[in-house]
């Protein structure tokens, strides 16, 4: 029996399996099994009212698990699935259990663009509910090693697919509204959504969003994150070092001061996203008190990166 078939058996038996997607690693459970979802929430220490995304293996799932599916939902599924986009639709009964949707009347569906994820869903024969496979409130895992160090002892199996290609979570679009609403920025850019829809979607502002992944300080490492411009980087690093702090620097160039721990990121946006979460974790592993981050331009994928960095920096 292959690893994927074994993992699928665990899913069908109500157990938890961590698996790779193109965005981040997910912690999977059978989305049609209330007991499995309860186990998932207790392991993630996730509040019961926080819904999870149901991962499906094809666009057909949109109407199988959703109802009253809007034209915009169909258009986006057609264009971006498989891919880093989660679509919120009205929930069809029976299907994804209420425990997985926090009692909401909508369900978040996504077809991940990863061969292991797709084989697992197909082999299990059920939609797989999966939040990111990190401890609640921590930086999402982009390698199997991240998963193992966060929650390794609590899952039945971790499928290792190497580092995630995209590196930030999926974009979430609420397609139950007349004008689709982006409730979380992510792997599909707002520009790409606008082009597919033929007009711009609405974008949720802080405070009026129901997705808990959009809470401030939800993506924080332990170290204190500060955002700086490239011009201010050296001065700021020097000040912090002189005040006795250990300093990590995440940005396209090294800080021009001795004593700072440099964690380089490429300037190309997709590469920046690909390495960011690992570099945030590296800052913690290296005992940094502060991480100075030079964010990319807030365009395309850069907008999602800036969103995550702003939340990491907002840690109280
Ligand atoms: O890229 C991703 O989306 C990854 C991979 C594993 O697919 N998953 C992920 O899951 O980031 P999680 O649980 O960390 O974030 C899911 C977000 C949460 O903010 C949740 O509130 C929102 O999706 N969500 C799910 N279903 C929803 C619904 N019916 N209504 C509103 N928000 C929903
Ligand atoms: Mg998460």
Element order, helices and strands? HEEHEHEHEEHEHEEEHEEHEEHEH
Number of helices: 10
| Helix-strand category | alpha/beta
The average pLDDT value, as a whole number, equals: 94
Q: Roughly how much helix do the residues carry, as a percent range? A: 25-40%
Portion of residues in beta strands equals: 15-25%
Secondary structure tally: strands: 15
Bound molecules: threonylcarbamoyladenylate, magnesium ion
Radius of gyration: 19 Å
User: Distance N terminus to C terminus?
Assistant: 48 Å
Low-confidence stretches: none
Shape: globular
Structure description:
- With about 325 residues, the chain is of the alpha/beta class.
- It is about 30% helix and about 20% strand.
- The protein is built from ten helices and 15 strands.
- The protein has helices at about 5-10, 35-45, 60-65, 70-80, 115-125, 145-150, 190-195, 235-240, 270-285, 300-315; strands spanning about 15-20, 25-30, 55, 65, 85-90, 105-110, 130, 155-160, 170-175, 180-185, 200-205, 225, 245-250, 260-265, 290-295.
- The strands form two sheets. Strands 1, 2, 3, 4, 5, 6, 7, 8, 9, 10 and 11 form an eleven-stranded mixed beta sheet that branches. It has a four-stranded parallel beta sheet with strand order 12-15-13-14, sandwiched between helices.
- Helix 1 (about 5-10) packs across helix 5 (about 115-125).
- The longest helix is centred in the C-terminal third of the chain and has 17 residues, at about 270-285.
- It is globular, with a radius of gyration of 19 Å.
- Bound molecules: threonylcarbamoyladenylate (TXA) and magnesium ion.
- Threonylcarbamoyladenylate (TXA) binds next to strand 5, strand 6 and strand 10.
């Amino acid at each position: 029996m292959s690893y994927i078939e074994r993992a699928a058996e665990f899913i069908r038996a109500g157990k938890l399996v961590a698996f790779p997607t193109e965005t981040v690693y997910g912690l999977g459970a059978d989305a049609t099994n209330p007991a499995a979802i309860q186990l998932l929430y207790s392991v993630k220490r996730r509040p019961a009212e926080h819904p999870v995304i149901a991962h499906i293996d094809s666009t057909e799932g949109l109407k199988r698990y959703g109802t009253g599916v809007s034209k915009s939902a169909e258009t986006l599924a057609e264009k971006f699935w498989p891919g880093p986009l989660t679509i919120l639709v009205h929930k069809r009964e029976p299907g994804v259990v209420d425990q997985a949707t926090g009692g909401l009347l909508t369900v978040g569906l996504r077809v991940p663009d990863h061969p292991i994820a797709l084989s697992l869903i197909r082999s299990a024969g059920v939609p797989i509910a999966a939040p990111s496979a990190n401890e609640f409130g921590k930086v999402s895992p982009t390698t199997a090693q991240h998963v193992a160090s966060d929650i390794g002892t609590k899952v039945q199996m971790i499928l290792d697919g190497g580092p995630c290609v995209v590196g930030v979570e999926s974009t979430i679009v609420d397609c139950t509204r007349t004008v689709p609403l982006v409730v979380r920025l992510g792997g599909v850019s707002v520009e790409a959504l606008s082009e597919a829809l033929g007009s711009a979607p609405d974008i949720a502002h802080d405070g009026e969003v129901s997705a808990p992944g959009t809470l401030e300080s939800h993506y924080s490492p332990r170290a204190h994150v500060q955002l700086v411009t490239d011009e201010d980087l050296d001065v700021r690093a020097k000040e912090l070092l002189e005040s006795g702090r250990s300093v990590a620097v995440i940005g396209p160039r090294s800080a021009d001061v001795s004593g700072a721990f440099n964690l380089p990121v490429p300037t190309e946006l997709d590469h920046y996203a690909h390495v960011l979460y690992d570099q945030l974790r590296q800052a913690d592993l290296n005992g940094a008190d502060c991480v100075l981050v030079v964010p990319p331009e807030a365009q395309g994928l850069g907008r999602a990166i800036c969103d995550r960095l702003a939340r990491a920096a907002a840690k109280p």
